[in-house]
Amino acid sequence: MAQINKQKVFFASYDSVWRAAHAVLKYPIAQENQDTGIIETEYIKGIDGWYPPNEQKPPSSGIRYKLILTFAKGRTEGRDSTRVTIDKKMEILRDFFSEPEPIESDGLEEKIIFYRIERELIINEALKRAN
User: Which three-class secondary structure state does DSSP give residue 12?
Assistant: First the structure.
């Protein structure tokens, strides 16, 4: 399996990246704390969440996952930067009595979230310049 890139550095202020992440996340938030840099979603059923457009059928109804986004502010090459880490905790519930089994993410949803955050930042920067 290919290595999944779960981190990306954005050359934007921490607050801008935080707002962009909120704009692109379409799931209910279980907890968030801007001071510690954590956004955690509720558990999402596999059939209610995102799945690749090339999939012929929806995922198993026993699959659920949550996303944990971790933000860290810093400076890179003299510019504000914010590192975002996305951890997608997936598990499958085989039956009512068994413990959930962890499964690996394919990394596609994480890539899409990074892409959408980047696009949101570009759009916001263009709107600032236009005004």
Answer: coil
Phi-psi region of 37 (alpha: psi -120 to 50; beta: other; left: phi over 0): left
Q: How far is CA 21 from CA 66, 84, 86, in A?
A: 15, 9, 11
Tokens of 99: 């413990």
119-130: pLDDT as tens digits = 999 999 999 899
Pairing relation of β-strands 63-76 and 44-45? antiparallel
Cross-strand partners of 65? 44, 90
Residue 2: predicted pLDDT: 46
Rounded to whole angstroms, how far apart are CA atoms 24 and 110?
12
CA quadruple 86, 3, 60, 84: dihedral, nearest 10: 10
* Alpha helices in the chain, H assignment, sequence order: 14-24, 108-130
Residue ranges of domains in the chain, CATH in brackets:
7-130 (3.30.530)
pLDDT > 90: what percent of the chain? Answer: 60
Q: How do residues 49-84 score in pLDDT, each as one tens digit?
A: 766 667 666 666 788 899 999 999 998 888 999 999
The residue written with tokens 């992440």 in the block is 21
